[in-house]
Write a structure and sequence with these properties.
Blueprint lengths: L7 H4 L11 H8 L15 H14 L28 H10 L3 H4 L5 H17 L5 H8 L3 H4 L14 H15 L3 H6 L3 E4 L3 H12 L15 E7 L6 E5 L27 H11 L7 E2 L22 E2 H6 L3 H11 L1 H10 L23 H12 L3 E3 L4 E5 L5 E4 L4 E3 L3 H16 L14 E9 L2 E13 L4 E7 L16 H13 L13 H4 L17 H37 L1
Antiparallel strand pairs: 1-7, 2-3, 2-12, 4-5, 6-9, 7-8, 10-11, 11-12
Helix pairs in contact: 4-6, 6-7, 11-18, 11-20, 12-14, 12-15, 12-17, 18-20
Length: 576
């Protein structure tokens, strides 16, 4: 004997009081007969389906997004079949779950589910819908033996996979929930996601043409990006790998799970911030020719050497020699203590000058976005987070994000740091990373491959405005003689960053910086500025840069429009 799950609204009325109250629905029932034997079924009114749908989607996404009386509800999550094929016993299990899906879910507890099923079967007997013999027979079925999860979901359910995976990771790590709890126990998780950010970021990372490919085996380099509100720490967008839209559930997430060297992006954290806080002026001249520190003699990328130059120029051009010199002056221990203040894990890092270049330190884009939010937020570091609150299936709030901030540097130091890092995007290593029409501050980072100093393993670009911090990394999962990057972060990584920034900055408030670029403070023309004005001596180079940025923006704009059109079409189908 088979029974429609819809009919169980009547049988489970004691635990789900709102069912069966619509007289028109009951009249409809009088006109219908079951196609399975002599049972009469209630074709329940739409309101019940909506309630059932809300419950089901929270538990396991097994129902289609749009439900009406003509559509079949898939029960593949539990029994590997559709509603029309459910037995009385299986239907009783589902009806019994309505009162507490987190308790009576058979994947959570077969014992609880069995007891609840038997109660529902008893109600069915009392209601005259089945005989006692039929109930006894149904009670003999071992629930564990019939569970069959064939539900594969819908691609639309997983359109923001990287962000969704990071949410699960955060729920596990910060709130003690397991993946099984989240998927099966009806939790509702509220997040900080901004769909405009996310859709645009994904469109860039779905375009594999942006990313290097190994000549050896055709493997594409990986990458990740995080967009964070610097005032609150809210993660508005997160992409954890290249081609995120086609990634499988809980693929490795480079935005949150990677452990990569930060390269020169660590310099503002462990060198320049503590130096400025210690009283160094941003115009302090620093050496830029090799020096020996007991056998350690760092060089600049590509072997560049210059005469002494001011601190702000050393930072903007990401020179190594001045950074190591300055860390030597202020003390490695002080630099490491600042790294810890900025949220980096420095516990197992050796106390040596190489820390100035990221030596021994590992991190990921989420951590770096939080660290750089400090500069955009006046010296106060917010707590990076994706989740705002979590409710159980009954609507009770079981976890909630509690905002917390920490002052890492003073407002004055933060302003001076931003003044210097504006130079990175106007005159330094991140000129190619600009978003046309916007002013960005930040830092690049390039990590040399350990087998060839002319090749690189990791490239970073981190940029911020008063409204958003974007932290981006690219590199191969494992760098070796066949898998490496051939340029510095001022090249490929900057073009990718420009595409991301150009696509999401239009969705921000457009708040302008209140501090002046250190280059213009000291009488230098800006190679790039938001209003399009450039230094005469470098106009040709700048024009090429701006053309690249505008082309990238046009390309990503078209891609995002297509993605948004597809999403809008999907959303309309779900809500009509």
């Amino acid at each position: 004997m088979r029974v429609s799950p819809a009919s169980l609204c009547v049988f489970a009325a004691q635990g789900f009081r709102s069912c069966g109250s619509d007289q028109r629905a009951m009249k409809t029932d009088e006109r219908l007969r079951s196609p399975f034997g002599n049972l009469r079924y209630t074709l329940l009114f739409i309101d019940f389906y909506r309630k059932l749908f809300r419950w089901w989607t929270k538990v396991n996404h097994a129902y289609p997004k749009k439900i009406n009386a003509k559509e079949t509800i898939t029960m593949g999550k539990y029994f590997g079949t559709d509603a029309a094929n459910l037995t009385v016993e299986q239907s009783a299990i589902l009806a019994g779950m309505l009162k507490g899906p987190e308790i009576y879910n058979p994947y959570y507890s077969v014992e609880n589910a069995t007891n609840r099923r038997n109660t529902v079967l008893g109600v069915m007997v009392d209601a005259g819908k089945i005989t006692q013999a039929e109930a006894n027979q149904a009670k003999q079925v071992d629930i564990a033996s019939e569970l069959n999860d064939t539900y594969t979901g819908n691609s639309d359910d997983y359109q923001y996979g990287s962000y969704f995976d990071a949410v699960i990771q955060e729920a596990e790590k910060k709130y003690g929930l397991s993946e099984n709890d989240i998927i099966n126990n009806g939790y509702k998780i509220y997040t900080e996601l901004d769909q405009n950010y996310q859709a645009n970021m994904q469109a860039v990372f779905d375009n594999t043409a942006y990313f290097p490919v190994s000549d050896y085996d055709g493997q594409t380099a990986q990458g990740a990006s995080v967009a964070m509100d610097p005032s609150t720490g809210a993660v508005r967008g997160l992409v954890g790998r290249v081609s995120p839209s086609s990634a499988t559930f809980r693929s490795f997430n480079y935005a949150t799970q990677a452990s990569r060297s930060p390269g020169s992006t660590i310099k503002p954290l462990v060198v320049y911030s503590p130096a400025v806080a210690s009283g160094y002026a941003i115009t302090t001249d620093l050496p830029n020719t090799p020096r020996d520190y007991d056998g350690y003699s760092p060089t600049n990328y590509a072997g560049i050497e210059t005469a002494d130059l001011p601190m702000y120029q050393a930072l903007a051009n990401s020179y190594n020699i001045p950074a190591v010199y300055l860390l030597h002056k202020i003390g490695v221990s002080k630099g490491m203590s600042y790294g810890q203040k900025f949220g980096l894990n420095m516990k197992n890092v050796k106390e040596e000058l190489g820390v100035a270049l990221g030596g021994g330190v590992t991190t990921n884009p989420l951590e770096m976005a939080q660290a750089y939010a400090t500069f955009a937020n006046g010296g106060v570091m917010p707590k990076g987070h994706l989740i705002t609150k979590i409710e159980n299936a009954s609507g009770q709030v079981i976890a909630e994000f509690k905002p917390s901030t920490k002052r890492v540097i003073s407002q004055s130091v933060a302003n001076k740091m931003t003044s210097m890092m504006l130079g990175t995007f106007s005159n330094g290593s991140a000129v190619n990373a600009n978003a046309y029409g916007y002013t960005i501050a930040g830092k690049t980072g390039t990590v040399e491959a350990n087998f060839n100093a002319d090749l690189t393993s990791d490239q970073w670009v981190i940029g911020y405005t008063p409204d958003v911090v974007i932290a981006q990394w690219i590199g191969y999962d494992s760098t070796d003689e066949n898998h490496y990057l051939t340029d510095a972060s001022s090249g490929t990584a900057s073009i990718i960053f420009s595409a991301v920034a150009s696509s999401i900055l239009p969705y921000t408030a457009g708040t302008e910086f209140t501090v002046e670029n250190a280059y213009s403070q000291n009488g230098y023309d800006l190679v790039y500025s938001a209003n399009g004005q450039t230094a005469t001596s470098q106009s040709s180079s700048s024009d090429n840069i701006l053309d690249k940025v505008q082309d990238a923006g046009d390309k990503i704009g078209r891609a995002v429009k297509d993605a948004w059109d597809n999403f809008s079409s999907w959303f309309n189908k779900q809500t009509n």
